Amino acid sequence: MASPASGRLLFLDGLRGLALVFMVLNHTGRYWIERPMGWPRYHLVYLTVPLAAPIFLFLVGFCLPLSYLNSTVTRGERYLSVAWKYVRRGARLVLAGWLLTLLVFPDEPLFGGGVLQTIGLSIIGLTPVLPLLNRRAARWLLAAAAVAIYASFNLAHPVLRAWLRGHPVVTEVWFTDFPLWPWFAFPLLGAALGWVWTEVHRRGDDDRRYFTLMSLAGTLCFAAFLILELTIGRTPHFHSGRDLVLNRHWNPGAVTCLWILGVIFTLLPVTHYLMQVRQVRAPWLVIFGQNALMLYFVHQIIVITLLRQHLGVLFQSWWLYAFANVALLALLVGLGWLWPEIKRRARRFLATRAEPGASVARP
User: What is the mean pLDDT of residues 294-317?
Assistant: First the structure.
């Protein structure tokens, strides 16, 4: 199912919207619930982290081949023109991430690696690789590079923790929140898999076999995760004790990485089946997905800056917390629905102001 107005594939917007919902729940769980509410609060926060940012990062890589081939093959644009467009987009996302840090997290390092910064740098980093992905060997190498980036970080983690203590600038800039190493692995893997799917989709072939194989891979990841989860002894289940904490920020360990891949490789086929094959309409999810950047910004200002920091909102009741989240999501749907019209009127206003003779001459 595609939007008739834009040609967008709505199942991709739906999954992006679902990731935004997970991120909202992560932030409200982190900032609206008091710690005395115990393990349910911890598990809500811990389990929604792998359900939010990793999906966004994977979709960045997965969707880029579709955009690239539509631009260069369908519309005949030159590679340099398309590459410059992607570099500008990536740079704008990095700047947006810095602005969000100033607005919501003024005490955090300004040039740290938030989700938006990592997404922006990932787009820039993938741009030179895109022309090579029409070769099968290049796609395999890209997938192998994704595994190597994650594995090397895992192996280097003990040494890296000690080394970063003496390098505060490197620590703040490159190893805060979602650092490129190891998180660039997810866009790389997404780009390799996204190119394969894009070729199938552009030929008009039935892509259900592709998503069946992906769901099988997701099942295998869940099975491996469950085996390792039950094998590991002392650490409580679903706990950061088995992950790679660096500079007081969370990075997934091997067990959690299997959980993340299982979620991604399951949710993408399920979303495709429901929205593309069964034609299930989920307009509120599509609104979230198509306006993800704006809503990513706005929900943090509402949740953290306005309600938590200025109004001191804290819930001690799960029922009140659930009701507040429903109200917040409804508000975000409304903002997302109005956003295209707001942008259209803003552009018209700016264009009118820029027209010669728009201002009234003095008598």
Answer: 90
pLDDT (tens digit per residue) in 5-63: 445 789 999 999 999 999 999 999 989 987 766 778 888 888 888 888 999 999 999 99
DSSP string over 190-219: HHHHHHHHHHHHHHT---HHHHHHHHHHHH
d(CA 243, CA 252): 5
- 119 by Cβ neighbours in 10 Å (0-12 / 13-18 / 19+) ranks as buried
Q: Annotate 67-78 with three-state secondary structure.
A: HHHHHHHHCCCC
Rg, C-alpha atoms of the chain: 22
Residue 363: which pLDDT band, with cuts at 50, 70 and 90?
very low
Distance (Å, whole) CA 266 – CA 215: 5
H helical segments located in the chain: 10-32, 39-48, 53-69, 79-104, 115-126, 136-164, 168-174, 180-183, 185-203, 208-231, 254-272, 283-290, 292-300, 318-354
Rounded to two decimals, the pTM is 0.90
Could you report the per-residue pLDDT of 70-101, keeping only the tens digit for each? 999 999 999 999 999 999 999 999 999 999 88
State how far the Cα of 136 lies from the Cα of 193, in Å rounded to an integer. Answer: 11
Using DSSP's 3-state secondary structure scheme, residue 38 falls into: coil
Cβ–Cβ under 8 Å, residues 98 and 111: yes
Residues whose CB is less than 8 angstroms from the CB of residue 268 and which lie 6 or more positions away in sequence, other chains included: 15, 62, 211, 214
Q: How far apart are CA 344 and CA 342, in angstroms?
A: 5
Closest CA to 49 of 181, 178, 242, 227: 178
Total length of the chain? 363
Cβ(324)–Cβ(32) below 8 Å: yes
What per-residue confidence (pLDDT) applies to 272? 95
Among 343, 337, 345, 341, CA closest to 289: 337
